[in-house]
């Protein structure tokens, strides 16, 4: 497979899976499993992450503007936009702590397909439990700071291969009783500081070693991942209230089993 085609395929996978509760890492190993493709490197990872970051920031541009304006004024906990910013800040803290404490382990990228498969299966079951027993009655502004911290703690499990950042954030939101749309929107908003942090982390890792890159491949990774991620968010928010989480749980279970059978 040519590098151009591989870049297109990986960017497509990243754009689709970054915001769905299905584990992007589980899908990004598929080209290697099926076609024996190579790793395009850290610079390409940065490009695709930057693409998904641009997509989610553009998707929520009005919310971001309101939050920033609220935080530039005198702090007011009664202001919904200020409060939303505070919730997102608190929910981001756990993954920052995990990144600082275990950054070297994450950077090592010593990930086996068996690990991805098993964690995918385990966290699919956790998502099922959260969805099955959630009251699904709360909106975003009905949750407390402690609720946001719990969501953040669940999201921090996304450092494990196969866990799914979006899936874990949605799982945490469901556990505290948020409805599906609110859970998805909060998980998407929470992606902004989280992906931004991962981009910074990847850039710092890249600076430590010489990196060769192909500009055309980077443009493909950035552009395709941004475009696909934007429309994936739209599609998911329209669909999730109709179909719920069970199809995603079933899909992840099947994917996990298939990965185990392939290795």
Question: What does this 3D model show about the protein?
Answer:
- Helix content is 77%, strand content 0%.
- It has 263 residues and is mainly alpha-helical.
- The longest helix is centred in the middle third of the chain and has 29 residues, at 80-108.
- It starts with a helix and ends with a helix.
In short, what is this structure?
With 263 residues, this protein is mainly alpha-helical. The protein has helices at residues 3-17, 24-28, 30-35, 42-59, 61-72, 80-108, 113-133, 145-156, 165-175, 180-207, 215-243, 246-262. It is globular, with a radius of gyration of 18 Å.
- Total count of domains: 1
Helicity range of the residues? over 70%
Overall mean pLDDT score?
89
Report the count of strand segments: 0
Assembly state: single chain
| Cα radius of gyration in angstroms | 18 Å
Helix and strand topology:
Layout lengths: L2 H15 L6 H5 L1 H6 L6 H18 L1 H12 L7 H29 L4 H21 L11 H12 L8 H11 L4 H28 L7 H29 L2 H17 L1
Helix pairs in contact: 1-4, 1-11, 4-10, 4-11, 5-6, 6-8, 6-10, 7-9, 7-12, 8-9, 9-10, 10-11
Looking at this protein, list some descriptive labels.
263 residues, mainly alpha, globular
């Amino acid at each position: 497979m040519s590098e151009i085609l591989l870049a297109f395929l990986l960017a497509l996978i990243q754009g689709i899976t970054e915001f769905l509760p299905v584990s992007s890492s589980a899908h990004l190993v598929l080209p290697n499993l099926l076609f024996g493709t190579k790793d395009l490197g850290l610079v390409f990872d940065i490009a695709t992450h930057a693409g998904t970051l641009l997509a989610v920031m553009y998707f929520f541009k009005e919310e971001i503007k309101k939050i920033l304006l609220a935080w530039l004024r005198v702090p007011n906990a009664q202001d919904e936009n200020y409060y939303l910013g505070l919730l997102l800040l608190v929910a981001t803290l756990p993954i920052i702590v995990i990144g600082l404490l275990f950054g070297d382990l994450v950077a090592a990228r010593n990930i086996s397909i068996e690990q991805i498969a098993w964690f995918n299966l385990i966290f699919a079951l956790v998502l099922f439990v959260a969805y099955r027993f959630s009251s699904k009655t709360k909106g975003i502004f009905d949750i407390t700071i402690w609720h946001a911290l719990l969501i953040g703690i669940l999201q921090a499990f996304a450092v494990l291969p196969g866990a799914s950042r979006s899936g874990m954030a949605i799982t945490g939101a469901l556990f505290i009783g948020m409805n599906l749309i609110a859970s998805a929107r909060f998980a998407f908003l929470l992606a902004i500081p989280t992906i931004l942090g991962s981009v910074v982390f990847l850039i710092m890792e890249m600076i430590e070693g010489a990196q060769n890159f192909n500009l055309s491949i980077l443009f493909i990774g950035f552009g395709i991942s941004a475009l696909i991620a934007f429309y994936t968010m739209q599609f998911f928010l329209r669909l999730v209230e109709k179909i719920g989480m069970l199809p995603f749980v079933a899909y992840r279970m099947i994917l996990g089993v298939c990965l185990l059978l392939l290795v």
